[in-house]
Every structure is written in C-alpha cells, then in structure tokens.
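The following record pairs a protein chain with its ligand, L-homoserine.
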Amino acid sequence: MNQSIKVWAPGTVANMVCGFDVLGFALADPADEIEMELLQERRIEIAPDPVYQLPTDPDKNVAGAALQALLDAIPDEQVGFRLRITKHIKPGSGIGSSAASSAGAVVAANHLLQQRFSPDELVQFAMHGEKLASGVKHADNIAPCIHGGITLIRSIFPLDVVRLPAPDLHVSLVHPQIEVRTADARAILKQHVLLKDAIKQWGNIAGLVAGIVQNDHALIGRSLHDHLIEPVRSILIPGYEELKQRCLAAGALGGGISGSGPSVFMLSASAAIAEAVAHEMRSVFSRIGIEHAVYVTHISPAGVRTSI
Ligand code: HSE
C-alpha cells in the first residue's frame, strides 16, 4: 500500500454564467499541490500554511472537514492523514480554492486507501468542505475538480453528476485582488425570481448544455447570459460592465463572473483571441488601479491528478 502521495487539484469555474450551482468546469491552470501521508491512527494533521495562514484545526479547515467525512464512512479503521497544501489558487478568488483543497484531499486519501471510494462518494465528502466555507453544500466546483472537464450537477440530494464533453475552448481569467467571500456573495442574492426571468435562464442553461454537447461555439456564446445572479453580484466587481463589453469586442464567445467572484472569465475559440481578451482584462484593471492576476489557459479534461 502507498504510504504517501502528491496530487494537483485544479482551479474551477463554477456556474458557467447561467448555471448557478449546477454547472462548472476545470481549469488547466492554476492548481493546488497536496502532499499526503497515511497514518495508522485516526488523526488528521494539517501543516501550517505560510502564505494564507489557513486554519490547521481539521474542524475549521475545508480539507480537514472533507477528510473527516471520509473517515466517518470507515469508522472501524485505524487510519488518518498528514497533509500539506501548497496553495496556488488564492482563497476568496472565485476560482474554486476551497474546492481544490477539499477535493484534492479526498482524492489523495482515496489513492492511499487503494481507491476504496467512488467519485460520487468523494464528491459527497468534499462537499463538507464547501459547507464549511460557504455555509451551503454545492458541488459545482467540487465535481469538475474531481472529474475534470465540464460537469452538470443535476441534483445534490440525491447526488446526480453528469459529465459533459469538454470542448476545445480557451479561457481568459482575471482575478482582481479584492476579496469576495462566497458566503457574502450568496447572502445578497434574491430568494425569489420572476417567472419571465426563470424562463430566460433555463433557456440559456439548456442552450449552453446543447452547445457543449454539439461543440457549437455560436450556441455556447448565445447562451452565456445570466438574468438572475449577475445583475446582483456584478456590483461587487469594479469596472465589470466595461470589462465584459471590451472582452466581447475582442472576440470572446462570452463569459461572466467566475463562481461567486471577484474573478471574471471569458471563453474564446482560439488561443490568439484568448490573449487579446486577456490584454483587455489587464488594461481595464490597470486603468482602474486594481492589482490583478491574469490566466490564459483552457478547459482541462483532467481533474485532480497525480502528475503535472
Ligand atoms: N455556485 C457557487 C456560488 C460557487 O456561485 O455561490 C461558489 O464558488
């Protein structure tokens, strides 16, 4: 049996604009590194994080909460885990930082336990980390982080994850260095929607899924509109409207807020367009005077992996 392992857990873009809590995809870059050792006693030991000072108490750490859920499923076994997470995905960025820690931890543990659990069980365990981070269980970062590609969460109670084909699309993503806590970004949402808005929203979700399955870039672009969440959350991101319009003018198929923000992503059909879009992203935030990090990457067909 392997006694130690290292995995890379990718960043993810949840919601995919119109699919709040039900759609998400994995990014090729950035990814967190998780090193884990198997212990012969029921204990979870988390190394201090020198950069973000994340909690080392397993009850307060998202990876700890996910691993505890996994241990609860095997109450009679004398096993535990010692882990170190090197964060490349900044917490509070909207690129699935907490999901990468939780999903990466349970996938690493599953390797050490000789693949005891199914991917659906791992998603269930990792959602305990999301609950700790945002107050609510949601799987639209966890599922693509574990499976890679694009995933549809048809339901979480009971869990029903549908893997969609990953079209060969390029991603430009900007992370303005302001923090938006997922719990806060959820708290401001309206709890009721108008039927006319819901109709537009589910038309777009269905159109997006059809566009992904048919690899129809124009249909994907036409469907990347959000009538429910973006109008509320975009006020948290300075320059959002200008940014979006300039990215679309540069040739992006479409895009919007990544997860609960503040990152913003755009999908493009070619690497050259994705670079042009990234240029607009830098230009808008430089002019506003907000520090930012930009990634030009693609949808990753792979989820948590054991090699780069
Ligand atoms: N679907 C979640 C939200 C993702 O938008 O709140 C959070 O990363």
